[in-house]
Amino acid sequence: MDESDFTPEGDTVSYFEMDADVFFVHPTTYTGDKHEDQWNGNVDDSRLNKKTDEGTIRFQASAFNHAGRIFAPRYRQAHLNAYFTKDKESAGKAFDLAYVDVKKSFEYYLKNYNQGRPIIIASHSQGTDHAQKLLTDFFSGKPLKSKLIAAYLIGMPVKKDKYSDIKPCRDSTDTGCLISWRTFKKGFSFPKVPDSGNILVTNPLSWTTDTVYMPKTANIGTLLFDFHKIKRHTIDAQVNGDILWANKPKFRGSFLLRTKNYHIADINFYYFNIRENAVYRAENFKKLTAKK
Fold this sequence. Notes:
Elements: E1 21-25, H1 46-59, E2 69-71, H2 88-114, E3 119-124, H3 126-139, E4 148-154, E5 177-179, E6 183-185, E7 238-240, E8 243-246, H4 271-291
Parallel strand pairs: 1-2, 1-3, 3-4, 4-5, 6-8
Antiparallel strand pairs: 7-8
C-alpha cells in the first residue's frame, strides 16, 4: 500500500476486481527547498519523495484509485525554475532527462504489469508535459491506442488538435479521448496568444467543453488542506476561453488568498467528480469493448 491507495473516507481500495490501470505522472515537487539546487531531482532523495508522496500522490493520484490500479513512477523531475529560467538550453535538457525516466517507467509497466489491461493516463503540471509525450510515443497511431480509456492531462495547455486520432472527450462517458483544464479565479483572463482558441478546456463538473456555467451544487466534493475533510458543493466551474474559471475557495484565512491562479488545486477542487468520472469511463470502456 502507498498514498495512492487511500481515500478521504479513511478506507483503502481493493484492486482485485478492477480491470483497468492508471498511469499517473506527478507534477513538480522539486521546487527549491534546501539542497534542491540542481536541474533535476534525485529519485533517492527521501525527503523529496516524502513530499511527493504526502502531497500529490495522496491528494491527486488517489482520485483515480476507484477506476484502476495506480502506477505512479518516481522520476528525475526538472526543477521548478526550469520553467522560468532564461537558460532554455539547460532547462530543455532537464525536461528531456525527466521524460527519459517517465518513458522507461512506462515501458517497464507495459512489460511487467499491464498484461493487456486498459489504461487511464493521468497527470498534472510538469507531469502533463511528459504525459503528452507518452501519448505521442505509445498511443497515437499505435496499437496501444485501442487500450486508452482516457487521458486526464491537467494543469498545462493541451492543444485540441495535438493528436490526429485522440480527440477531446465529448461528454462524461466518452473514451479514447483527452481531458484538460487549468483553473483560475473567476474573472481572470490571459492576453491573446497564438494558440488561443485551440487550447482544450474541459469543465470537470459537466465533462463537456462548452461554456455552460456549472454551479457549486454540481461539485460532489473538494479537498483543500486536510485529506480527510471533504468540502461539499463549494467550488463552481465555467469554461472561459483557454482556461477554467472557479470561485474563490473559502477556508480559515482565505481572505488572505490573493492569487488568481488556482493551478495547485486543479485536481483537489474537483477531486470527487474526477473519481466518479474515471469510474464511469472505465466502466463504459469495458462495455464497449465487450460488444466488439
